[in-house]
Write a structure and sequence with these properties.
It is built from 7 helices and 15 strands. It is an alpha/beta fold. It has 2 domains: 121 residues, FAD/NAD(P)-binding domain; 80 residues, no CATH class. Strands 7-2-1-11 form a 4-stranded parallel beta sheet, covered by helices on one side. A 4-stranded mixed beta sheet has the order 5-4-13-14, with no helix packed on it. A 3-stranded antiparallel beta sheet has the order 8-9-10, with no helix packed on it. A hairpin with a 4-residue loop joins β8 and β9. The structure holds flavin-adenine dinucleotide. It holds the Pfam family FAD_binding_3.
Length: 245
């Protein structure tokens, strides 16, 4: 385990609500700059479900302060090729390196794609290594702040109140923090569209002849992800050596 350069303790207490990837990364970085950190998660145990996502240069740069995580981040990453199709189902681009789609003259041409459970596990392992243990089964139902007193806090489902210097509401799209942040509750609105997404081990998916024929690996063994445009819909298929969604 490499040494992490932590700044001097600054006496600031931070309470993170939500142990998704946002909350965990925030917890790590707050600890690194010297804060005392607690994390409340409503699930009873680790939930690292989900399939895959892409992170870009700004997120990857954060890892420069975390040598072990940086190493693991690249070990678990994979780099698919990408093809794009228009409304008529015609291929308009690809297969090209996925990183080409976010390349600009300002941003280094770097991205990494991960299976979400793997990425989540890297963050959890790092938190454990620095001695931050997540507090499971703690559902935040409300947030409060006292600007004059310089304190903020959360109310849990059991009615208990927890005060701290800083609260980070990382509890996802339905966060009850909207009342404070936006000055009023912000209701979710349906887009009217739906997406179905599921991941299979690739050896299972390839037992289907149609899938096996369509999603062939390139000659050098690379996988190709496909993005299809549709009327109000967006469909995406990708695969690597382990999974297919
Ligand atoms: C199909 C799909 C594809 C995506 N692809 C990408 C991609 O390629 N790249 C990318 O960057 N992003 C992608 N995203 C978005 C990405 O999943 C989210 O941006 C990311 O999960 C947000 O992380 P988070 O930690 O903020 O929230 P979440 O992952 O939603 O985590 C919230 C956490 O808070 C907990 N929680 C919720 N309510 C409470 C409460 N009241 N009290 C305590 N804990 C609570 C939850 O249990 C959960 O652990 C995709 C999303 C979807 C649905």
């Amino acid at each position: 385990m490499s040494t992490i350069e932590r700044r001097e303790p600054n006496g600031i207490s931070v309470l993170v609500s939500g142990a998704g990837i946002g909350g965990l990364m925030a917890a790590l970085e707050c600890w690194r700059i010297g804060c005392n950190v607690r994390v409340f998660e409503r699930s009873k145990t680790n939930v690292t479900s989900g399939d895959s996502f892409t992170i870009g240069p700004s997120a990857l740069d954060t890892f420069k302060h975390w040598p072990d995580m940086e190493k693991q981040c690249y070990e678990i990453a994979y780099y698919p090729l990408l093809s794009q199709f228009n409304l008529k189902g015609e291929k308009i681009a690809g297969p090209v390196e996925m990183s080409k789609f976010i390349h600009s003259h300002k941003v280094p041409n770097r991205i990494a794609r991960h299976m979400r459970p793997d990425f989540h596990a890297v963050l959890l392992e790092q938190l454990k290594a620095i001695g931050i243990y997540l507090e499971y089964g703690k559902e935040v139902v409300d947030y409060f702040e006292n600007a004059q007193g310089g304190q903020a806090g959360v109310v849990l489902e059991d009615g208990s109140k927890h005060s701290t210097d800083l609260v980070i509401a990382a509890d996802g799209v339905r966060s009850p923090s909207w009342g404070l942040v936006a000055g009023q509750p912000v209701a979710n609105r349906s887009s009217g569209n739906a997406i179905f997404r599921v991941a299979y081990p690739v050896e299972h998916a390839l037992t289907d002849p149609m899938i096996a024929e369509h999603f062939q690996l390139t000659d050098d063994g690379r996988s190709v992800m496909e993005m299809w445009a549709g009327p109000g819909a967006y469909a995406m298929f990708w695969r690597n050596k382990d999974f297919m969604t």
